[in-house]
Amino acid sequence: MDKRIRLRELINAPDSFMLPGAYDAVSALLIEELGFQAVYATGAGISNAQLGWADVGLTSMKEAVDIVARITDVTNIPVIADIDTGFGNALNVIRTVREFERAGVAGMQIEDQVSPKKCGHFNNKNVISKEEMVNKIHAIVDARKDENLVIIARTDALAVNGLDDAIDRARAYKEAGADVLFIEAPTSLEQMKAITSSLQGIPQLINLVEGAKTPLISLKEAEDLGYQIVLCANTALRASIQGMKQALSVLHADGSQKNLNEAICSWEDRQKLFKLSQINEWEEKYLSIEAKEEVKIPE
Questions:
Q1: Residue 213, Cβ neighbours under 10 Å: how many?
Q2: Which of 185, 3, 183 shows the shortest CA–CA distance to 80?
Q3: What are phi and psi of 229, to 5 degrees?
């Protein structure tokens, strides 16, 4: 099934779903292997993992789309790309949409922060006007080649202008063509309830960041509140950091790899994840002496 149609089915299904974040091809492969139905290409994770810097708008559009293209290439589930602010104004958004759509994403999430943006759970954010963001969403709608491409509109206005403005902006973004609404960083269950009740009937996303501003709730609790998507954007990244630290600490302390068996995946699991058996099949089919002899070279 087309990945964009599949994503639309997930968004409109009666059951809510979890959306883990990937920052490279390997994290995306693991998300798919473990049975999740979609993957989120996280802007923060890409900035952290590829640049080694915090999520403060340092990543370029080209750097982001290159990573996203690698993620879509190796996965069979829908990929939602974080395109930050669209990497500029509405004109930049047009090019951004074309590049990410060519990269094979099923959906895009755009936010209304001033560029350069910051992580939604950082302090001292600023937002553009509602009218400018509406025009950016219009640009996405007009620029996309496939009308099934899902548009997720995020507002960071709650922390800047308060809840009423955030809800007002969300309604305007839906009217402009957004398929899913995302009010970033509510700080209480009361705010979450106010958001979902005010925007009832529209698919909504909640971003849960361990240790940050929004209280952590389960998928079932989020569904009961009225959220369709539970985004866990950088859980995998943070787990990988912790896992690498633990393994490297053992290596540094022992001066040996003998005690790493519990801290690293097996050789077999690694090769399975990265499709060595598929490569072996291709070698046998295309590179063996027998295969070469079957090729008829015209005289």
A1: 17
A2: 3
A3: -125, 130
